[in-house]
User: Fold this.
Amino acid sequence: MEEINIKEISKLARIKLSEEEEEKFKKDLEVVKKMFDEIDEIDANEEPSYHPIKIKNRYREDKKIEREKIDIFSNTIHKENNYFKGPRV
Assistant:
């Protein structure tokens, strides 16, 4: 594991750190680096498992149902060609 140079990082970020802040950030960055090293060890050539159980969706077939026609436009004056007419936007 390569050494993390907090002084160089703080210089690039243009921030001043006290000695104790440098130690704190160094420990934090080492933890983050360890996490990335663990991620690097993962074999990415495996097929992803999106769901552990192979399930296929079963959809019902759409059926047309004849309904009794009701004049829904009888209570409005805002209608045009069997559509409700709304304000222009």
